[in-house]
Structures are given as C-alpha cells and as structure tokens.
C-alpha cells in the first residue's frame, strides 16, 4: 500500500502531469466526437503542422528560462524563410547554401536581440518588439509583399516525404528536441541558464557570465525561429508574406502550458513539446468541428489562463 501511495505521489508530482492528462483527455474526446480525427492521415498532417510551432517553442523555452521573452520569433522565421526562398529562386543559390545563410541570418538577428538586452540593458519586451517590427518590414520589402514560388524539387522532397514512415520534417523536430533537452539537462551551460533565470545575482557571484549567457539564449531562439522558417517554406512549397504571423504567441503558450515559468529559472523541453502538441491538436479538432477561428482564439486564451492558474496553485 505504501509503495502504491508513493508511486501515485510521484506520478501526480510529475511536472507535466496536468497538461499530459489534459492532452490525453482531449485526444479521447475528439477521437469519439470528431469524425476523421483519429486517423493516420490526420495525425500525420497535424504532426507536420506541429513542427513549425515546436521549433519556435523550443527556442522560446531557452529564453523564458533565462527570465526574458522574445516577441520577434515569428518575424525572424518569416524573414529567414523568405530570404532562403529568394536566394534559391531569384539568385540561383543551391538549397544547402541558401538554408545555411538563412539559418545564419536568424541566429544573427537573435544575437542582436541578445546584445540589446544583455549589454545595452533594454528590456527584452521592448527590444524584441522592435526586432519583430523591423524583421517583418524587411521581409515585406524583400518579397515586395508577394509569395516566392517555384522552389527547387529538393526542398519539396524534404517537405513531403518520409524516412521509415516518419515525415522528414518530424525527424528534424525530434532531433531539435533531443539536442535541446540534452543541453538544458546534461551540460554546465544548461545549468547556467537556469541559474541566471532563477537568481541572476547569485549566478553572478558564482562566476557565471550573465550577459554572455543571455546573449546566447537569444541567438538560440533566433536559430530555432530560422529553422521554423525553413520548415514553413518546405511545407508550403513557397514563401508567403505573412507565414510567421502569430508564431510568437503560440510559442509562449506552448512553453507556459508545458510548465516553463514566465518568471524564469524553471522550464521543461518535454513540457513544451506536450504543450505545443496540445495546442496543435486542439486547433485541428476545432477545425474538424467547424468552429470559427475567432472562437478558437477565445478558447485558447481561456485554456492558457486556466493552465497557468492551476500551475501556480500547484507550485
């Protein structure tokens, strides 16, 4: 009996227990009442859609753990993806080189955010809001607010094909999740991020370079956003002027639903994955029901507030 009680206590105290239970309940509900929801075809399509959100949410997790926020991830994803598409279609660059340059651009813009926040001491909300506006404007200028189509076949192949029955895009997301989890849980650098977010002064007295650590998490966020931009053009087979709009809100919601603290010092990659999947499958179920996208936003907001309230109460 004691062992059973101890096992029950460990399960309930599992950081993602609430969101995981909610996720399973939601899947069961839609599987019963939403025709076509519980099918291989639907799950495959939704998993592809989840990759974009997963990329930006992982980067956002790093930033939130350090007690900062990044509102520019959607615009950086948009700009990076647009640049990749433009370099391939307009300038004839090879897909590999265009993708490398796009990822480098996203990392650079993230690092710029880090410099402004960590060294110039501009609040991250303001700094990344400015970057969001700037990157969005640059994307519209570069694309002339028009789609960039006719991407190379190799890009379309990655976006539409499988390896051992798993979509290639999903494999990219799995690799990113594993690398992020390893960094945060198995490296000194990961422990430094948690220390900086939990108590910056104590971290400084322990010899951790606060500014350098914060700069690096924004660079990681920028890289993840650029990776999301790459995935979007592979999925859409084109670059769209507004393809990254709203990603920053989805990323924050996924991380917070997964137990990452907006006050810093606490975060879980696994939780972010569950939170991101929860939101994507919730949207998918609502779409099958034919619920208006306007009402979907209302319900998502309510769910987010309830999730944070329950998390704070449990803490």
UniProtKB/TrEMBL annotation:
Entry keyword set: Cell membrane, Membrane, Transmembrane, Transmembrane helix
Q: How does it sit in the membrane?
A: Multi-pass membrane protein
Report whether Transmembrane helix shows up as a keyword of the record.
Answer: yes
The GO cellular component terms are: plasma membrane
Kindly indicate whether the keyword Transport belongs to this entry: no
List the subcellular locations: Cell membrane
GO MF terms, alphabetically ordered: transmembrane transporter activity
Q: Which InterPro entries match?
A: ABC_transp_permease (IPR001851)
Specify the protein name: ABC transporter permease
Q: Which organism is it from?
A: Sphaerochaeta halotolerans
């Amino acid at each position: 009996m004691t062992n059973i009680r101890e096992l029950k206590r460990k399960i309930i105290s599992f950081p993602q227990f609430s969101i995981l239970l909610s996720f399973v309940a939601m899947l069961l509900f839609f599987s019963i009442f939403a025709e076509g929801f519980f099918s291989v075809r639907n799950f495959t399509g939704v998993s592809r859609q989840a990759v974009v959100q997963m990329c930006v949410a992982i980067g956002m997790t790093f930033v939130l753990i350090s007690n900062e926020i990044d509102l520019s991830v959607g615009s950086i994803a948009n700009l990076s993806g647009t640049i990749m598409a433009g370099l391939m279609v307009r300038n004839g660059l090879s897909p590999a080189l265009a993708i490398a340059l796009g990822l480098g651009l996203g990392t650079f813009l993230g690092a710029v955010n880090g410099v402004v926040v960590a060294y110039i001491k501009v609040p991250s909300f303001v700094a990344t809001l400015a970057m969001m506006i700037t990157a969005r404007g640059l994307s519209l200028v570069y694309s002339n607010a028009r789609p960039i189509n006719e991407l190379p076949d190799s890009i379309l192949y990655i976006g539409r094909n499988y390896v051992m029955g798993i979509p290639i895009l999903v494999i990219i997301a799995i690799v990113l999740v594993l690398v992020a989890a390893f960094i945060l849980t198995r490296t000194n650098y990961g422990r430094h991020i948690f220390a900086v977010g939990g108590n910056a002064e104590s971290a400084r007295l322990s010899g951790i370079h606060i500014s350098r650590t914060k700069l690096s998490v924004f660079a990681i966020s920028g890289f993840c956003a650029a990776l999301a931009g790459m995935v979007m053009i592979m999925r859409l087979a084109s670059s769209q002027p507004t393809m990254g709009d709203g990603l920053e809100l989805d990323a924050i919601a996924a991380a917070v639903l997964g137990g990452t603290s907006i006050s810093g010092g606490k975060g879980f990659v696994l939780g972010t994955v569950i939170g991101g999947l929860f939101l994507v499958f919730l949207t998918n179920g609502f779409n099958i029901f034919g619920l208006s996208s306007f009402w979907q936003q209302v319900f998502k907001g309510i769910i987010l507030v309830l999730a944070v309230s329950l998390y704070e109460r449990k803490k």
